[in-house]
Write a structure and sequence with these properties.
7 strands
């Protein structure tokens, strides 16, 4: 199975000109910039949950990878299989270019992700190869089994990334990254409780431009779409109309997140700036991995002090 994953990933890299064909020995590995990897279950999840923050890191020269743990090959109401997987891989590659980040799609079927030892090793290797300082994923409590198991696998990797004799072909990390969860609205066994809230006002248009590159999901509704749904969306030829339609939905979504966690924004940005934030993305520190202090978090998310984010 692992051989199948590796061969398929190589084929995708060759076919698409490289979703993530970078080696691990790169000059930027030691350039003093942060290295961030965001895991989503499907080719859109990482972009939806952390696309704005990813763009902010990228603008400051930090290195961000958005990883889809499955290939999304059943995530559409009208098409499936290899053609859909290739389409969605191309979509996230285009979105990554807009955000200024790297994209990677793993060769696991949509809807079939399981928290196996094999997949634990795969996630561990991705984190090690990126030499991550920060790892973000879904929480392991979610409506979708793929989302839940991404959370489980990343939690499991939170210890294994430093263990020398697991996956000895990829050097272990010398320091455990900070692991965080992206936001959700689920209440059981406990509600999402962010430690970090990032204003994405300055990159909101960039995030929307990236989401615009995900038409199978953003405009066609993905697995829950239909002819009726598509009929309500401006046609592909009407780019301005589509972007206006997208703006309405995402403006509501990101402003709701800012309002929901206004107290965290005020704590991090100060009262005046925090109250003025219109759109936000939020993250909760996982109790596994490194346990950052408040000062550590402000270094990892260098957006709160306007004099420091230069």
């Amino acid at each position: 199975m692992m051989l199948r994953h590796l061969l398929a990933a190589l084929c995708l890299c060759l076919f698409w000109g490289g979703l993530d064909c970078e080696g691990t020995a790169r000059a930027e590995d030691s350039d003093g910039k942060l290295r961030i990897v965001v895991f989503g279950a499907h080719p859109d999840d990482a972009e939806y949950k952390a696309g704005g923050t990813a763009a902010k890191w990228a603008k400051l020269g930090h290195h961000v990878k958005l990883v889809s743990v499955t290939n999304g090959d059943i995530g559409h109401w009208q098409m499936a299989g290899g053609p859909l997987a290739q389409r969605r891989a191309a979509e996230v590659k285009a979105a990554a270019k807009v955000l200024g980040v790297t994209s990677q799609v793993l060769d696991i079927h949509d809807g079939e992700l399981l928290p196996t030892v094999e997949n634990r090793k795969l996630i561990t290797k991705v984190i090690r190869e990126w030499k991550a300082d920060i790892v973000i994923s879904h929480r392991p409590w979610d409506y979708h089994p793929d989302h839940r198991y991404v959370g489980v696998l990343v939690q499991d990797a939170a210890f294994m990334v430093t263990v020398p004799f697991l996956c000895p072909d990829v050097p272990p990390l010398k320091k455990n990254p900070v692991f965080l969860y992206s936001s959700d609205g689920f209440k059981k066994p406990y509600s999402f409780n962010p430690d970090v809230a990032v204003s994405v006002d300055d990159v909101f248009e960039t995030k929307l431009a990236a989401i615009h590159e995900l038409p199978s999901q953003a405009y066609e509704g993905g697995a829950n779409g239909s002819e009726e749904h598509v009929s309500k969306v401006p046609p592909e030829s009407d780019v301005a109309g589509r972007k206006a339609w997208l703006l309405k939905g995402w403006s509501n979504r990101q402003s709701a997140e800012a309002n929901r966690f206004r107290d965290v924004l005020i704590a991090l940005y100060g009262e005046e700036r925090g109250k003025a934030v219109k759109y936000a993305e939020t993250f909760e520190v996982c109790e596994y991995g490194s346990r950052p202090s408040e000062a550590d978090l402000k270094k990892l998310f260098p957006f709160f002090d306007p004099t420091a984010a230069k």
